[in-house]
Write a structure and sequence with these properties.
Elements (H helix, E strand, L loop, with lengths): L6 E2 L9 H9 L19 H18 L5 E7 L1 H13 L5 E6 L2 H12 L3 E7 L21 E4 L1 E2 L4 E2 L11 E4 L14 E7 L9 E7 H5 L4 H5 L7 H6 L9 H16 L3 H21 L5 E2 L10 E5 L3 H13 L2 E2 L10 E4 L6 H19 L1
Parallel strand pairs: 1-13, 3-4, 3-5, 5-8, 8-9
Antiparallel strand pairs: 2-10, 6-7, 9-10, 11-12, 12-14
The structure holds pyridoxal-5'-phosphate (PLP).
The site of pyridoxal-5'-phosphate has 12 residues, from α3.
Length: 368
């Protein structure tokens, strides 16, 4: 068996910090002296209590959350959140606004529509194939929330900053840029994301939810009619352990949050690291006439760098040769084609430099 690891540019599941993986490996058979693996201990044990409480405490410190917020772990990925949000927060007579910036926002909108909730799409970038972040939209001030997708994994766009929404709180799908930069938490009723890009294994969503927003959710009688596992209240009351939680996922998330906090200088430190990597890659492409980033300059994502080459045939060759040279996951999403380098928190500067060196070499050879 080889220990050789490639430079991993997968969009999700994606690279995790090597230090975290090695830590998991070395303690896998005997977690904290328990004589058991973390996947074998009871979720009601003191050992697991420490894991989940530490994960919550670290998330709160990193995000600068005070006691107004819950930090919850919910199975079903971000996609289940698309359904739970309108289910829990929109009663008859209540409305919400949605901004459509790509495939994932479209899916979030669809889940509200399936439930016949009263929502309005107040802005969209569909007219130019979701290659930009809409600006200057107006939020209905009687909306209960406005739903945004902070980073669009497939189209490679990202909100550089969050819009002024007046008195209406934001609910934000941060699946692909969660814990990659500081965020102004006061603007939000809820922030959520599937763990599999910046935080850990797939299947678990991390949900940061303002307590007062939850308390006002729905007329309480209607809320009680929701199935137990689809109510945020259930998770909030039981520290995410009404049933057996995704223990291994939560454990990995705890270790990744520890790495961000102790090794990367918190969200301010990780933001600098991400800006440096994204800056190098975009600057390189801007100076080249071979590679063309697909997103508008002011909407470019620092997490998913989407780009095209002069032809589809060259793109196929580029991806195949990169893979041979140990640079994996550069194929664009199957719905859009092209190329995509996902450079989440755990992608190293060394990895981005190796990618640029390969891109330079490939362009020179093909242009010759
Ligand atoms: C922005 C965004 N939202 C939601 C999802 C769906 O996440 P999950 O597969 O955890 O349901 C993804 C998955 O890639 C995503 O990128």
């Amino acid at each position: 068996m080889t220990d050789h690891r490639i430079y991993n540019f997968n969009a999700g599941p994606s690279a995790l910090p090597e230090k975290v993986l090695r830590n998991i490996q070395s303690s896998f058979l005997n977690f904290n002296g328990s004589g058991m693996s973390v996947t074998e201990i009871s979720h009601r044990s003191t050992e697991f209590d420490q894991v989940i409480n530490d994960a919550v405490a670290r998330a709160k410190r990193l995000m600068k959350l005070d006691d107004r917020f819950h930090v919850l772990f919910i199975q079903g990925g971000a996609s289940l959140q698309f359904a739970m949000i309108p289910m829990n927060f929109l009663a008859a007579g209540q409305t919400a606004d949605y901004v459509n910036t790509g495939t994932w926002s479209t899916k979030a909108i669809k889940e509200a529509q399936i439930q016949k909730k009263d929502i309005q799409v107040i802005a969209s970038s569909e007219d130019r194939d979701f290659s930009y972040i809409p600006k200057d939209f107006t939020v209905n001030q009687d909306a209960r929330f406005v739903h945004l997708t902070s980073n669009n994994t497939i189209k490679g766009t990202q909100f550089a900053s969050f819009p002024d929404t007046g008195n209406v709180p934001i609910i934000c799908d941060m699946s692909s840029d969660f814990f990659s930069r500081p965020v102004p938490v006061d603007k939000f009723a809820m922030l959520y994301g599937g763990a599999q890009k910046n935080l850990g294994p797939s299947g678990t969503a991390v949900v940061i939810l303002r307590k007062d927003f939850l308390e006002k959710a729905f007329g309480s009688s209607e809320n009680q009619e929701l199935p137990t596992m689809l109510r945020y209240e259930t998770y909030a009351q039981k520290n995410s352990m009404y049933n057996t939680p995704p223990c291994f996922g939560i454990y990995t998330i705890e270790l990744v949050l520890k790495w961000i906090e102790e090794d990367m200088g918190g969200l301010e430190g990780i933001e600098k690291h991400n800006q440096e990597k994204g800056g190098l890659l975009y600057d390189f492409m801007d100076a080249s006439d071979f590679y063309r980033p697909t997103a508008d300059k002011d909407s470019r994502s620092l997490m998913n760098v989407t780009f095209r080459l002069p032809s589809e045939e060259l793109e196929a060759r580029f991806i195949a040769q990169a893979t041979q040279e140990g640079l994996g996951g550069l194929k664009g999403h199957r719905s859009v084609g092209g190329c995509r380098a996902s450079i989440y928190n755990a992608t190293t500067l060394e990895g981005v430099k190796a990618l640029i060196a390969f891109m330079e070499k490939f362009a020179k050879k093909e242009a010759a």
